[in-house]
Amino acid sequence: DIDEKLQKDRAKHIQEELWKVRARTYILIVSFMVHAAPVMTIVFLYEFAMMFSYLGLARLVCMFIVYMHHTGVISGRLPLNPARLQVLYIWYYGSFAMLLLGGIFHRDSDAKERSMQAFNDGGRLLMAVVIMHKPTALPAQLAISAAEIVVYWFHHNDVADTAAFAGVQLVFAIANVGVTVTLEYWVTSHISALLDAESMVGSFRRMLRGVCDGEVLLKEDMSICENAECIKQPAWYGHGSALGTSRRLLFDGIMVQLKEKFEFENFVIYSELDLHA
């Protein structure tokens, strides 16, 4: 079926554009945070030297690999394609879980515990915004919440408090997934609208080429931009004659009527957004 094939091609095109947006978002956030990873690596190295643990070693290794990935992306040695982005998403979520578990022995005061909890919540929300990928976000956020619950149980060892904390973590995980789903839906809708506008504007331009002797450049109010001698009259008024003032006004009137009927102002706006994207 032709319609079904067109729908599949359209959905594929939207997904391709969505992955491009994800890649640009990833590069943007990495360019701001590329220097934070080595600082955290040094901190984890110090904590590992002060207190040996296999979880601390795993946390140190994960943070070092994250730093290497960041530098590889910034330098261009690691091109971002959908497969690599998915691997990076899984790796970063997994590294964050190891970050939580690796710091299980470093919450020896209430102040440090509160600061670490604020850092964890902020980091999870940031990943929910940057990593707009539903299949990764749902299991990863739940796994991180499970790691949070384990750490909380280790320090408090109270069933009632841990159960209440688990409920809060479940709600927070679902909220973060909701942020990811909402952003992905918004970006997908925006891409779809731009593709629709591009298709309609392209169809309108092809129609103009069919009814006019030459190309015309229009303003937002659908009037001709300049009174150029090379612009000919519409084909239904005859080929080869210069576009006089009266016929020019008539042509402008036709364009205004088309604008009112099909709301071409929206098409122009979408086209400008597409050009500046």
Keywords:
277 residues; mainly alpha; 9 helices
Number of domains: 2
Structural class call reads: mainly alpha
The SSE order reads HHHHHHHHH
Shape: elongated
Strand content: under 5%
Question: Terminal Cα separation, in Å?
Answer: 33 Å
Number of strands: 0
Q: Nearest-angstrom radius of gyration?
A: 28 Å
Q: What characterizes the major β-sheet?
A: none
| H/I helix tally | 9
Residue share in helix: over 70%
Which consecutive residue ranges, at least 5 long each, have pLDDT under 50?
Answer: 228-247
**Overall mean pLDDT:** 75
Write a structural description.
The protein is mostly helical and 277 residues long. It has 2 domains: 2-191, no CATH class; 212-276, no CATH class. It is built from 9 helices and no strands. The protein has helices spanning 2-33, 36-50, 54-75, 82-102, 110-130, 134-156, 159-211, 245-262, 264-276. It starts with a helix and ends with a helix.
SSE layout and pairings?
Elements: H1 2-33, H2 36-50, H3 54-75, H4 82-102, H5 110-130, H6 134-156, H7 159-211, H8 245-262, H9 264-276
Helix pairs in contact: 1-7, 2-3, 3-4, 4-6, 5-7, 6-7, 7-9
Give the structure's gist in a few sentences.
With 277 residues, the protein is mainly alpha-helical.
